[in-house]
Amino acid sequence: MTNVSEKNILVLNGPNLNMLGTREPEIYGSETLFDIEKNMAAHAGTLGYSIDFRQSNSESELIGWIQEAGNNAQAILLNAGAFTHTSVAILDALQTVDIPVIEVHLSNIFRREEFRHHSYISPAANGVICGFGGNSYILALDAAHAILS
Ligand code: DQA
Predict the structure, then answer these.
(1) Measuring CA to CA, how many Å separate 51 from each of 42, 44, 47, 71, 108?
(2) Which of 121, 85, 83 lies closest to 103 in space, CA to CA?
(3) Cα 44 to chain center, whole Å?
(4) Rounded distance from Cα 129 to ligand 1 centre (Å)
(5) 53 φ, ψ to 5°?
(6) Which residue range forms the structural domain that includes residue 113?
(7) 80 CA closest ligand 1 atom index
């Protein structure tokens, strides 16, 4: 967990994203999740935010973090991984939180299998950024900053 300050952005990563770097690099690139975290922390610093960067393979843990975010964060950036395409429970959790939510994906989910074209999470998101690899997270940070400014 990164340092929590007054201007904090919660970055949540769902299942299998801990495997980035070795997981299907032709789709997800060669950056590890730690590389993404370091790049985000540096960019967040230039915008005056700290990030609280977390990953879990557990839907329950992600939901708990979303529920707590209303008190601890100014915005949520969420790459829910495969839960994007399955989880009404994560949608419900996001709808209880009254801060901006940006949905993030490394890959362009619309160029991939049809089951990835539907996101249960998008109705609770201010916007969706997908298809830019690790840079999707940086773009999402810029989007959150624009909403919060
Ligand atoms: C993903 C896309 C999802 O379809 C997939 O299940 C993932 C990663 C992405 O970042 O491109 O785990 O969210």
Answers:
(1) 10, 7, 11, 15, 24
(2) 121
(3) 14
(4) 12
(5) -105, 120
(6) 4-148
(7) 13
User: Phi, psi (5° rounding) for residue 109?
Assistant: -60, -20
Q: What is the CATH number of the domain that holds 84?
A: 3.40.50.9100
- On the 0-12 / 13-18 / 19+ scale of CB atoms within 10 A, 32 is middle
Percent of the chain with pLDDT over 70: 97
Length of the chain: 149
Which phi and psi (to 5°) does residue 55 adopt? -135, 140
Q: How many structural domains is the chain composed of?
A: 1
Catalytic residues: 28, 105
pLDDT tens-digit series, residues 46-85 = 999 999 999 999 999 999 999 999 888 999 999 999 999 9
Residue 29 has pLDDT above 50, yes or no: yes
Q: Which atom of ligand 1 approaches the CA of 28 most closely?
A: 11
3-state secondary structure of 10: strand
- Residues 43 and 54: their CA atoms lie apart, in Å, by 17
Q: Three-state DSSP class for 87?
A: coil
